[in-house]
Amino acid sequence: AQSVSQHNHHVILSEAASLELGCNYSYGGTVNLFWYVQYPGQHLQLLLKYFSGDPLVKGIKGFEAEFIKSKFSFNLRKPSVQWSDTAEYFCAVKAAGNKLTFGGGTRVLVKP
Amino acid sequence: GAGVSQSPRYKVAKRGQDVALRCDPISGHVSLFWYQQALGQGPEFLTYFQNEAQLDKSGLPSDRFFAERPEGSVSTLKIQRTQQEDSAVYLCASSLGGTGAGETQYFGPGTRLLVL
Fold first, then answer.
1. Mean pLDDT in runs of 10 for chain A (112 residues)?
2. Which residues in chain B have Cβ-Cβ distances shorter than 8 Å to A103?
3. Measuring CA to CA, which residue among B42, B9, B5, B4 is closest to residue B113?
4. Are B105 and B39 a contacting pair, CB within 8 Å?
5. Which residue of A has its CA nearest to B102?
């Protein structure tokens, strides 16, 4: 069965700092990869996704992620964070079947 | 249009009670998913419907959990004889198609269940 690990449980940084959140998955076949975000008091929303083509994917709000197949990784990046990026971020994998397998999430706090 | 809606948003149950959680997917969405999110963890898959057919129920933790989608739209997740370990947020998601690569699942706000 596939699994997803997110290395950082909590990240604290200041506005304008760069952000990188790690995500690794275990599955040897074809995968679709997703990053979801949950802002305080809101529901899960899609940030970006990869399913084929260019391994560098750009999403909403200036986020991007790079799929590195050889490393089974799909790390999320943003060059300069804002206070409004405070949220919990979830990496997810869709392998066999339609279900998503999520990582444990990373809580990001951006200090103004 | 409207997103995925769930009701109730909060539910407190006494241990041993039965509960029913409702999900209204986005209109026209073929696929519907239920996930369970325990405190401090990521969502975990429970079950999946394509129209009214329950194609995958491998994530249901016990036979106390039952889900249905009789007319291929609204779905209900029922938990019988609730236990304290059932306390979690129950998330519903829907997607437009069936098995297409890259299909996005749209999530509802969840139902927070607390079993005392």
1. 89 97 90 94 94 93 95 96 97 88 97 92
2. 42
3. B9
4. no
5. A51
